[in-house]
Structure formats: structure tokens, C-alpha cells
Amino acid sequence: MPALTTNYTDESFPLYYKSFVNFIKIQCKRHADRVYVRYYSQGTYKTLTYAEIDHMSTNLACEWAALKNNTQVVSFLGVNGVDFLLTVLALMKLRLTVLMISPRNSEPAIVNLLEKTKSKLFFASTKFDSLAQESTAQCDGVKLVMLDSFDIEDRRKQPLHPQSEEILNMNFTTEDINEPVLIIHSSGTTDFPKPIYLSNKYIINSSIFFEYYKTQKPDLDLLNKDDVVLPCAPLFHMFGFSSLATVTLQGASLVFLERLPPSQAEIDFALRQNKVTAMSASPIILEQMIPFLKERNDFSAVRRLRYIIFAGASMKHESGEWFHKHQINIRNGYGSTEGGMLMMPDMDPSGKNWYALRPVVRDEEGKFFCVMEDIGDGLKHLYIRAGNPNFALGVSNRPDGGYDTNDIFREDPDFPGHYNYVGRLDDTLIMENGEKTNPVPMENTIRLCPIVKQVAVVGQGRQCTAALIELNMEVAVNYGPQEMTAIVQEAVDEANKECPSHSIILPEMIKILPFNKSLPSTDKGTVKRKLVDSSYQDVIEDLYKAFLDGPRTKANTTLSPAEIEPFLIKSLADVLHLPESSIDPSLSVFELGLNSLTAIQLRNMVANRLGGDIPQNFLFQYPTISSMREALVGGLKKKGDSLGYGQTELLAQSYIERARSEFPVAKVNEEEREKVILLTGATGSLGSFILRDLLKDRRVKKVYCLVRGTDLRHRLVQSFVSRHLDPTLLSTDRLEVLPMRLAEPYLGLTKEVYDQLKKEVTIVQHCAWLLDFNMSIGHYDKACIAPFYNLIRFAYREVNPMELHFISSVSASAGLGPQVEEKALPMDARAAIPMGYAQSKFVCESLLTYLAQGKHMPCSIERVGQVCGDSVNGVWNTSEQFPLVLVAGGSLLHKMPKLESDVDWIPVDYAAAAIVNIMLRPQQEESVYHIVNPASESWSDLLEAMRSCGMQFDTVDPVEWVEALSKDDTNPAYTLMAHFESTFKKGMSMPRWQTTKTVQVAPVLQKAPIIDSKLFSKYLDHWKSIGFYDPSK
């Protein structure tokens, strides 16, 4: 490899490789055993070496060689990740020019790109099946190839294609250096996205930018082979692809995130799992990182980064200063697809200038290719001189061969020769998230409407666009106010049809100016945008404030409870432009197509009609029409959130959002499958009886038990012996005991065992859960919910996923009213008792309901009520609340609380039998079951059973009972004082859980006995045998 000089025009480096494909081949051989990519899979990050990437992409190229024919340009629409990388490299190895299409494009934009590039071969991920099919249908002679997700593990094991050297022409010459190899399109802010052709020379040069920078700052080590780089931009953007090229030169590692755009939690996980040392991101991602870091107060992962490069838009200066104040080295960067990487600030981590940019690329005379042209008012326009070695093909827009960027800068007063980005010379708006919107074609469309004289679309630095409308008075006088508004809205709708989703103008963001107001325009009829911004500053500010904050008015009409759901359906249909008949009240509105902007729009419509006291996160708290209706009717809605319900709902929604992006819709075949079961929690009371019944049922082929700790089988045996169950049942080859560490990759198993189980298991029953009434939902998230999500990943298969059963609790639905139906919960955490245990079950039920409805996963929820000791031996865990209450009150305090509640407790052997009935049944549409005793008794009946067994006590008010307990810290029930204070003092009236549907599937439930004196005496006998109960006291 030739040495670099300060002359970037020296072509010895790109000529050494001749092509980007050859560059990849040489580097993959040079760094064969080093990790090339790290990609997210099943809750962890996996790795592929340079040799494996080269090997797998070669095999793919050989598989697709026959599709090439006479094609020169192939288009690709895919999901960013390792599949995307392998596909692009494979197509390049076929010597095809690859057009990488952003999934954000509209169908007309994709059609236009296919036609402009004369692409006759179109590869697309199945995730974009509909968009690809519809786009292809409008193009003549385009062959569409749909790609399923690659089985990476299978492909990495495949031998190299035996004829790869004959199939693939890897003999490159110096003439290949200027041949187009990649097409990246502009963001579609003009009429349609513009394809930009990149040569082999361009991409190879992009790999050496940091090395070139080092020739000017030789003491700096910007990147080396030991670095791990995390780009937060997709490969179909040059910001992302240049990271790949740079990493490849060094032999370093590239990290592919779980999804793009990522959440801050996903970025944090990637940083920590991969020990990332360098990162690149857009400013908006870094802006969002600040509150995340403040909340977590853990800077270890980001401080490990040697630097973070941001580009694509400006960052607020105070935000950048905050990062540096907290020892996080962020640095600005500037480049474009047309001109490559061009400017950087001082990359010395000790330097204070992290933001002001200085040209880097020089010619053989040491002159910069970037020229700052004075355009007045202290502003500079960036022009790139002809001969820039980083130019894309054919982008020159000046007669001298140079390129006008239309980007405006201002020289920094503190750092002479360095420049701060101001904006665009043309009309392109840079949105808050870095996306670009060209308002001109939108304005041109709106201006076609006869009633519109002039229009200005604004949105620079904003979350969304807005339109100021000047009416043509001569036409407008023929219409009433509502008619004028409707006509303008139709014109805006036309403009929205072919613009990117981030550029659409919402109805609330249209401002029709009074007749005596006009928009400043040039003689040519174009709007003077800067003058509009200054002249209508207050109008624009009020427009955005009203939209983002929402109405603060009282309800303008009153709706009856029966009218609320139709109103919500119509409002959602209007926002999404869908027929009302297509709105399913039980589906998440986000699944139906709502996004962050239209969510604000819908929330404002609700607030405007029903009153302004609707929280900003209303749709995230209640993401279905049904849950919105219940909240608005008032059945569940209470003022305030002192009990943390909002935190629970946001947690549930965050898991649902993860599942929405992670799992494709599953396909379930109806054929009967063998009963191979994975069971957790088998050493607990309920789990032990479930395991016993499964092993006794010959329909069960095999049971895998995941058990915590060490000496796993011994723990199972001890659990059986302590409950007087037959331990010889455990001596069978139908049972295999494995270690349980659900929070770890592969559930704590080896990859081989994990993969084997993933193919073999057909039913998962998750019975393990922490029972601690004092723990918060945050604790339960880490201890139980996040590990359960890993188990869901295990159970998911795109075809025939495992049947997933979850032992929930009636406490998750105790707030629903006097009668709880056997159906899914609304997205309202007030349905659950306000304690961490119940709220954690609520989160998991909400997630499973989404998976069942949205992803077609066969999920069953068994809501278990109060389980008492078994009906044969009376073994009842003495650490549970009611054994403590019964013995502490009936024997030690000689006082029992007087409670106004029914007792629907169910013996554990009957509960387990019912659950096993449900697990082994043929698949049912019903998915929520209540494991409670259909036959209940009153609390006073239970007290009489206690007295008939010899206990002597007074019945007192619950408050008095709690006070008596609080004075005796030697009482075993004292450990649950906080729980008793929060429940008994407020009263303990509980609803009835319906069992009509459950007993049809599990008839054994109807045979469950109530706790009479005969059964209670068995409990006392057991407790006496283990020293928990002393009848003499």
C-alpha cells in the first residue's frame, strides 16, 4: 500500500486498488481473522470476520450471477444491517453499479429513480414487499427479486462456491478507477431524489480521509485496527457508507445497530456490549442523548469514545459545550455526497474548537479545494474548485468544472480560517432532525390553486413544515370562510402527495393570512423567504406553539360515552386518510400508521373536542381506540400520577415498540405439533406441580426445565420432596434440566444448545417471577421483564413460533371494576394494583397482547389468583402473605382483620392442573384465562373454618390489626408491614374474575374445593410439622 502525502490529488493510493471491490478483497485478506462487523441478533451482538464477509458475499454473488444478463445498474431497497452490507458487496462483485434506495422514498420517487438510472434489476427486502411490487409494476422491463433475511449462521458455514473464480471477474485495471460503482440519491427535497454516481476512486478516497488528515497532524491517532466504530447512519447515506470504507482500511470493526433511527437505550447497549471507541451520528441523536445521560448519570460508555463525529445539520452550541464539559469529545464534520468529506474542526481532543470547520483537502500546490466566496453581510458561500479528487461523477455545475454547494458559512471570530455553517443559499430547509425539505415544488403546487395568490412554506430548524397562505382576493370573495379553508386544504393535500413524509404540511400548520396582509415576493413572483421569516416571526411562532402545546380550551361540545369511540375512529381516519371501516379499535394507532407528528395532530383534535385537559403523552398512554375510550369515559382515568402509572405505561409502550420493529408478522400453520415444553420456575410451588403434571401426561414428548443456581437436578428433587411429590418422576429421559440465566445471551446456554432448543421446543411456559411487594417497577424491569423479553425472542419464529404461556397475576387487572372479564387489558396501568409486582405483570400482558394481535404469535396469559396449599398434603409456603396473616393473626396476635372480600383461593394442585390443561389443548382463539376458584366463600366463612380448627381470635378493624402488628417486630408477618399498611388500611375489596371461558378449556377448575375446616386443618398440620404453627400459643 503506497504512503500518503499531503497532496490529495495523488492517485497512487486508489490506483493501487483499482476498484472498491478489489479494495475489499485485499483488506479482507490482510485482516482475515479480525472482526469486521458486529451486528445485533436476539438480544446480543454477534461478530463476523473480514474473511467471513468476503466469503459470504462471494457466494451470494455466485448465486445471483445468472440474474445479471445485460444489466448495468441494479437497485436495492433493504434494511440497514449485515444483510444490507452482504447484498451490496455481492452485487458489486458482479460488476454492477448499485443504486441504494432509501426506504423513506415514496412510490413515485422510487419509480423515478429506477427510470433515471435505467435500472432493470431491483432487489428488495421482504419488509418492503408492497412498496417494491407497486413501484416495479409501473416500470417496463424491471425484474424484481425479493430477499428474505439471511440465515447468517448457515451461510457462514457454507463452503466457498467451487466456481467463484470462473463466475466472478476480479481482474481490474487502472481504467476501472473512474467507473461508477455506487449510486446514492439525494434526499428527495426537490421534485424527486437525484441519483449521484460514485466512482471506485471516490469511495476508496473516502476511506483515507482520516489518514490524509493525519499527514497534516501526524501526532493524532484518529483510527486504528483496534477501534470499534458505531455509525448511527445507514449505509445508503454516504455518512454511513464512508464509515464502512474508513473502518475497512484500518482493519477495525463496524457496529450495526438494532435498528435506525435508534433509541438512546439501544445506543447505550451497543456502546457497552461492543466496547465502542468511536461513533458518528446526526446532531438530533446527540441532542437526545443529553437528557438520557443526565437521567442515567452514567457516562462510562460515552467517555470510552475517543471521539463522536456529527454531521448533516448544525448542533446547538450549548449542547456541544455540555458534552465537552462532561469529558465527551464530540467533533463537527462537513461533507456532501457530491463533493465528499471536505472540512473538519481541530481533531485534537485537547482543542477547544470542536465546531468551527476548516478545509482539509489540498492540491499539489497546497491550496485548498474549498473556496469561501463573499456574498455580503459577513456570509460566505462554499465553492469547490475543479479537480477535487472527491467529486462524484458529473456533478460540476460551473463552466470551470467546479461545484457550487449552495451552503452558507460565517467565519468564526475566535478561530480565524474556520467557519460555522449557517444554512442553504437556495431554499432548502434543514429540519430539526437533519432532514431536508425543498419548499419550492410544494409552493408551486399550492400556488396552482386559483384561490391562492402566494404561499411560503417554512420550517427551518423546526419539527415540521408550515405554510403561510396569501389569498387571491378576486377569487376568494366568492367563497365563505369554511369553503376557502377547504379549498386551500385540498391544494396542500396535492402538495403532500409526492413529498417525503418528513416534509408534509399538517392541517394545523396552515395559516391563511387576513386579506390586508401579503407575502413579500420578488418581481419574478418568488417569495422572499428571509423577509417572510422576519416579517411574520410572531405568526410563525404562535402557529408552532399552538400545534405542539395543543389547545387549552374547554370542551366545545359534550359527547356521551357511546359517541366517544365513533368520534375517535373518525378523527383517526381523518388524520391517516383511511376509511373508518378499516380502523380496528383494539389495534395500536401507531401500528395503523400514526407517527410522532400525526400523534400530536390527533391528540389536539381530541383535546379540542373534549377539552384541553388531555396530557401530551395521551396516545402513548392509551395507544388503542378502545383504551382511549375507556380513559375518556372516566372508568379508569384519575388525576395525577403519584403512583407511577405513567412510568409503567411508557415502559410497556417501549417494549411494544421494540417488538414492532424487531419481529415480522409470524405465519402459523394449523397442523398438530409435538409437545416439547420449555418450563421456567419449576422449583417454585406452582411450577413444581406443573412439572409433575406434564411428566405424568404421555402427550408430552419432552420437558426442558430452566433452573437457577447450581446442582440443578438436586434442586428439582428437593422441591418435589418438600412438597410430598413423587421424585421418581424426575428420573426420566423425557426431562432435561438446564441452567437459567435469561438476562444473558442465549439465555445462559451455549449457542449450540440454544439453536437446538429453538428448533425443537413447541411450547414455552414462563412461571418464574420475583415475588416482592416492596420492589418498584424499575427493579422488576431489570430483574424480570427484560429477561422475559429475551425469552420472547427465543420463542419467536417467523414460521410457526412457539406457543408462549405466561403466568400473570390477577393483581394486574384488579383495578378494572367489580367484574373482570377474560380478555386483554386496556393500555392503562391503573388496571393493575399500584405495586411493582402487579405493574410488572401488566407490562408483560400488554406486550403479549400486542404480539398476539400484531405479530400473530400464539400467546396465552394465565392470570393466577391467590394460590393456597395443595389439597392432599396441605403444603403452603410460609413466606407468602396469607399464611403469614393466618398464623400471625389467628395464633400470635389473636386478632384477625375484618375484610369485606370474597375468598376465591385455589389449591396449587388444581391451579397447576388447569394450567396444564390449557397448555396441552389444541390452539384456541381465547388467550386470557383466569386461574381462580369458581366457587368462592366470604372472608367470614374462612374465619369460621379457622375457629373450627381450634384458633381463638377476635375480629377487628383492618387498621387496628395493622397497628397491632406494627408493635410486634418479632411477628413473622412484620416483614410485610409496608404491604399491609397500603392494602388493609385502604380496604381490601377485590373484584370477581370471570371463569366461564377458562372452565371450558380446563374443566378441572370447577372441581377445586374451597377452604373449609377439612382443608384448613391440612394446612395447620403441615405448618405444625415444620414449626411454623404452634397451637399452644
From TrEMBL:
<dbReference type="InterPro" id="IPR020806">
    <property type="entry name" value="PKS_PP-bd"/>
</dbReference>
<dbReference type="InterPro" id="IPR006162">
    <property type="entry name" value="Ppantetheine_attach_site"/>
</dbReference>
<keyword id="KW-0596">Phosphopantetheine</keyword>
<dbReference type="Pfam" id="PF07993">
    <property type="entry name" value="NAD_binding_4"/>
</dbReference>
<dbReference type="GO" id="GO:0031177">
    <property type="term" value="F:phosphopantetheine binding"/>
</dbReference>
<dbReference type="InterPro" id="IPR036291">
    <property type="entry name" value="NAD(P)-bd_dom_sf"/>
</dbReference>
<dbReference type="InterPro" id="IPR036736">
    <property type="entry name" value="ACP-like_sf"/>
</dbReference>
<feature type="domain" description="Carrier">
    <location>
        <begin position="562"/>
        <end position="636"/>
    </location>
</feature>
<keyword id="KW-0597">Phosphoprotein</keyword>
<dbReference type="InterPro" id="IPR042099">
    <property type="entry name" value="ANL_N_sf"/>
</dbReference>
<dbReference type="InterPro" id="IPR013120">
    <property type="entry name" value="FAR_NAD-bd"/>
</dbReference>
<protein>
    <recommendedName>
        <fullName>Carrier domain-containing protein</fullName>
    </recommendedName>
</protein>
<dbReference type="InterPro" id="IPR009081">
    <property type="entry name" value="PP-bd_ACP"/>
</dbReference>
<dbReference type="InterPro" id="IPR051414">
    <property type="entry name" value="Adenylate-forming_Reductase"/>
</dbReference>
<dbReference type="Pfam" id="PF00501">
    <property type="entry name" value="AMP-binding"/>
</dbReference>
<dbReference type="Pfam" id="PF00550">
    <property type="entry name" value="PP-binding"/>
</dbReference>
<dbReference type="InterPro" id="IPR000873">
    <property type="entry name" value="AMP-dep_synth/lig_dom"/>
</dbReference>
<dbReference type="Pfam" id="PF23562">
    <property type="entry name" value="AMP-binding_C_3"/>
</dbReference>
